[in-house]
Amino acid sequence: MKKYLFIVGIAFPIVLLTSCQQKNAPLEGENSQWRGENRDGVYHETGLIKEWGPLGPELLWYYEGLGAGFSSPAIANGRIYITGLTGENLVLYVFDLSGKLLSQKEIGKEEHRSYPGPRSSVAVNDGKLYIYNAFGEIFCLDEKTLNVVWKKDVVKEYDGIVIEWSINESPLIVDEKLFLTPGGEKNNMIALNKNTGELIWSSPGKGEESSYCSPQFIGGYSVPIVVTSTHEHIVGFNANTGEKLWSHPQINRFNIHPNTPLYSGGMVLSTTGYGGGTVMLRLINGGRGIEEVWKNDVDNQMGGIVKVGDYLYTSGHYFNRGGFYCIDWKTGEVKYGTNPRDIGNGTIIYADGMLYYYSDRGELALIKPNPERFELVSRTQIALGTAEHWAHLVIHDGVLYVRHGDALMAYKVK
Asked: What three-state secondary structure class fits 232?
C-alpha cells in the first residue's frame, strides 16, 4: 500500500515546495548510475544542511509498497527509477520528484529465496534504462515508453554462473559499451553495444566466477581500463578490446567482493569483507601494469568507501573489526576506528563537506570528515521499511533518498 507524507505548515514552505517542483521539471539528456557520477560515492551538491534537528532531516515524502530489495534509486530527467519484488517478479517503479507513482512494470524474474529482491541499481543512459537481474538477464528499456528495446540472457548465452547469493552488478556504461561480468571461464567479462545488445568483445580474464562487484572505468591512460573484482582477484581489462592487462590477488573467507574499486590520481583501491582487508595499487606502464603500494586489515563488506582529501572513510565489517574508520590514502595508516557499539557498520557517501552514513542498524547519520577523530554531527533512526538496511544512499538536487526494503524515503537536506 502506498503512503505519502507532505510536510507543509505555513505559506512559506508551500511557496518553497512549489519553487522546487518548478526547478525539478524534467531535464533532457540526464544520465544516472550506481554511486554517483564516478562510482566513488561523491555527489556534487552544494548548499546542503550541515546539522539536522533532533528528529533528523525533514521527511518530504515516502512510499511503501516496493516489495523486497536492496537496489538504490536512479534519478534522471525528473524521474526516479527503482526496482522491487512482487511474487517472483522484478518490478520497475517510476516516480516523479514529488513522490507520485507514475508507472510500474514487471520485467522478468528476480531472486525471491535467499535475501529476496533486486540487488542491482538501474542505469539511465541516453534515453534508455538498463536493468540487470539477479539471474543474469539484462533488459534495455526506452525511458519514455518503458518498452523493451532489447534483452539478453547473459549467463545462458555466455556460459556464466549465477553465484551463491545471485548476481549483484550494476551495469557500467561508457560511450557505446555496456560492461558486465558473466564470470565464466571463457567469457569472464563482456562488452555489449548499449543500443543493440550485440557483443563487442569477450575476455576470459582470470576465468573466475564473478563476485557481486560493479566495475569501475578509468580513463586518461595509454589504454582505457575497466576494473572489477572476481572470485580471488582484482582484474584490469582494456576497455576497448577486453585484453586482460593485469590482476592482483584479493582473497577473503567467502570470496565476496561487492565494493566497486575506487580510483584517484593513478591509484586503485579495493576493500572487501570477511578478513580480505583493503589494498592500494598504483597503475604503471601507462595503465598496463600495477604495483602494490600498501595493504591493511580494515575490511568493508559492501558499504563502499569514500575519499575526502588525503583520507578514506568507511566502516569495518563486523566479521573482523566493525566500527567507523579513517585511513590515510597515501600510506594505509589507520587514523582511528570507532567501537562498533558507537555506530553500526554501514554504507557511506559524501556531499558538500559532509559524510552521509546509513548503518545496518537503521541509523541515518551526518558525519564531519575529520582525520583526527570521529565527529558525529547528527543521527536519527529509520523507522519505515523492511528487512536489512543495505541499500546505498543517493543525493539528488538537495534531497537524500533512503531505500529500506519495501520503503523509499525522501529527506530534505538543503
From this structure: coil
Q: Comparing C-alpha atoms, which of 155, 159, 203 is closest to residue 177?
A: 203
Tell me the pLDDT tens digit for each residue of 144-168: 999 999 999 999 999 999 988 899 9
Phi first, then psi, for residue 349 (nearest 5°) are -135, 175
pLDDT for the residue numbered 318: 62
User: CB 128: neighbour CB atoms within 10 A?
Assistant: 19
The CA distance from 14 to 16, in Å, is 5
Residue 318: all three cell numbers together: 563486523
Q: What band does 18 get if pLDDT is binned at 50, 70 and 90? A: very low
Helix, strand or coil, per DSSP, at residue 22: helix
Per DSSP, the three-state class of 21 is helix
Distances in whole angstroms, Cα of residue 181 to Cα of each of 188, 201, 218, 304: 6, 12, 17, 19
Give per-residue pLDDT as tens, 294-348: 999 998 888 999 999 999 999 987 665 678 999 999 999 999 999 888 898 999 9
Q: How many residues does the chain have?
A: 414
Domain limits, the chain: 11-412
11-412, CATH topology level: Methylamine Dehydrogenase; Chain H (2.130.10)
How do beta strands 363-368 and 375-381 pair?
antiparallel
Cβ proximity of 205 and 188 under 8 Å:
yes
| Strand 346-351, strand 42-43: pairing | parallel
Count Cα neighbours of 239 within 13 Å in the Cβ-side half-sphere.
24
Closest to 169 (Cα-Cα) out of 206, 217, 134, 207: 134
Four-residue CA torsion sign, 61, 66, 71, 74: negative
